[in-house]
Design a protein that fits this description.
Rossmann fold; five-stranded parallel beta sheet
Amino acid sequence: MSNNKIMKELRKNVLQASYHAQEGHIPSAYSILDIIWVMYDQVLNRDNHDRFLLSKGQGCLALYAVLVKKGFGSLDDLVNHYCEYESQYGGHPDKNKSKGIEVSTGSLGHGLPIAVGVALSNVDSSSKSKVFCLIGDGEANEGSIWESALLAANHNLNNLICIVDYNHSTDRALNMYSIFDKFKAFGWNVLEINGHDHKEIKKALTTLDNSSPTCIVANTIKGYGCKSMENNPAWHHRSPTDSEYIQFVEEIDSI
């Protein structure tokens, strides 16, 4: 199956789960879906025990869809039972319920501090494992993000990679300006990419610095792949009606 067909399938699975449950953050999931797919399909080395932590937990539908595609769980459970009582797929990732989830997240600003701890532990144990953590640009308003950034650089955690989903969703509330310059000033190796270009994503995730942690600023479009949702704040936490569901499936198929 081509990459384009896979991404259409994943987007439709995210859409169907949200439509059936009338819950979820579809645009947040769509902005990171390409990154997570490339991560699991081409980058993570399970033999090395590489770890991926989704800090922006509200985008969990993207992670669920990819994990199901990779054999961690049932598609029926995801698209027909998302957010149901005792479902393994809740509104935020829960490592005690969902297969393949490394850490429970949802309260923003928690994932990167945990990732720093894991990366530091790996250094102490001489593990070759890499730790990848995906945060949102709005999440970067949290002080815990910058405390973690300082700590990671101070300990030269070259096994830590932080991906920032820079979809500009926070601009209406608090402009972050140059996230690239901020991480650079905190002592990180920083790269900037198109967060929907699979070749750029893979190259960035495998181009690491030998002496410092790496930050990848991924320029993304919130709601990418569904034109009616793209950069539309009204869809931040909405689920489609019957007619909208049909319309969005058509939009996804038309790409």
